[in-house]
Amino acid sequence: MFLLNVRTGGLSVHSVVKALFADPWPEALTSLTLSTLLRRMHCTPTMATSCMELAAALAAAVPSRVTKDQLQVLWEAAPG
Fold first, then answer.
1. In angstroms, rounded to a whole number, what is the distance separating the alpha carbons of residues 12 and 41?
2. Taking a C-beta distance cutoff of 8 angstroms, is the pair 72, 28 a contact?
3. What's the structural domain count of the chain?
């Protein structure tokens, strides 16, 4: 599916994340991914927009694995 997106030029953050998470990932792995995004936002505030976009795409791709509380922590940690 990922190669199909690349071939057709559908390379947006949402489509790439959706292709990567097409197979069900364990909840622990999605939590680890979100915590990594949170740490990245703390270390590099200029990447907050990209981190939030990735988190939103992850939540859209696997909504059953991402909790509202996890997204709220990311939102509150974003600068500005």
1. 21
2. no
3. 1
- Residue 22 near residue 1 (C-beta atoms within 8 A): yes
Q: State the distance between the two ends of the chain, measured CA to CA, in whole angstroms.
A: 36
Say which amino acid occupies 1: M
Q: Are 17 and 37 in contact (CB under 8 A)?
A: no
Range of the domain at 53: 2-77
Confidence bin at 39 (pLDDT 50/70/90): very high
Q: Which pTM was predicted?
A: 0.70
**Residue 65, burial from CB neighbour count under 10 angstroms (0-12, 13-18, 19+):** buried
**pLDDT value, residue 65:** 85
